[in-house]
Amino acid sequence: MSDTGSQRSGSPATSEEHDLPDPPAQWDIDAQLPRLERESLNVTHEHLILALDHVGKLLSAKGIPWAVMGGLALFMLGNKNRSTRDVDVAIEAKPRAAIEALRDRRVYTPPLLSMAGSGCGRFYVLTGPEYGVKVDRQIVEVDLIIAGHLGAPRTLSGTTATRTAHTAAGERTYNVLSAAQLCRAKLHALEQREAERDFNDLEWLCMNYYNEIFEVADTLDKMERVNFVEKYRERYPGKQDVVKALKEALKIREA
What is the mean pLDDT of residues 11-15? Predict the structure, then answer.
């Protein structure tokens, strides 16, 4: 194992895994990905922001539009109870351009075919004191999602809000998907997996950004809106007041 790898990790590689090469490097799904996944689990919010900050600078340097989405976006919009272990970023770029933009001494990049096939690339970013901020060394997963895939809007123009985050490196300002766009993405995600966090996120968005959601409700997929409320009603039978509020926010007029 390289010195850099041993400093980053407190976990030895298994017999099936290889040592992590020093970045810039492309991860291999069998040799390095399992270890990167494992070592990215113990992140703090501070690590997430620092990784986002670095990735954002690399994307901006290449003129690639981007915006935060997922759990970190919800946190930035005000849901301070929302935790996440990775960073989701919507981008307007082709997979090859995104990978080239993030070819950097702190980043492990995905295989091109993997990102091109799914519309999402899993990158791993190094954080730690050697990069100018006094935090523990940590690998952070950053998922770049191509516009139009996995809930990301087809264009980021007019779909974002600006939010400020405080970090050990100072105050930073980021573009974040708007509450309306996050609601659209979450409704779609719920159709695929029905995860507890999706119900919680949609409830929080509708209750805390009622006016914004109400204004765009007619543009959201009607079947997805109805299915969400019905599934919510079945899942939480004691929260009929919330069901009523959700129906109002999403303009569901069915009995």
Answer: 39
* Distance separating alpha carbons of residues 111 and 190, to the nearest angstrom: 28
Residue from 10, 33, 127 nearest 21 by CA: 33
Please give the Cα distance from 131 to 115 (Å, whole number): 27
| pLDDT one-digit tens code per residue, 147-202 | 999 999 999 999 998 888 776 667 888 999 999 999 999 999 999 888 999 999 99
Whole-model pTM: value is 0.89
Within 10 angstroms of residue 148's Cβ, the number of other Cβ atoms is 13
Residues 6+ apart with CB under 8 A from 188: 151, 221, 224
Query: Euclidean distance between the first and final Cα of the chain, in Å?
Result: 63
Rounded to the nearest 5 degrees, what angle is found at the Cα of 182, between the Cα atoms of 63 and 74? 90
Q: How far is CA 130 from CA 8, 40, 50, 180, 224, in A?
A: 11, 18, 13, 39, 46
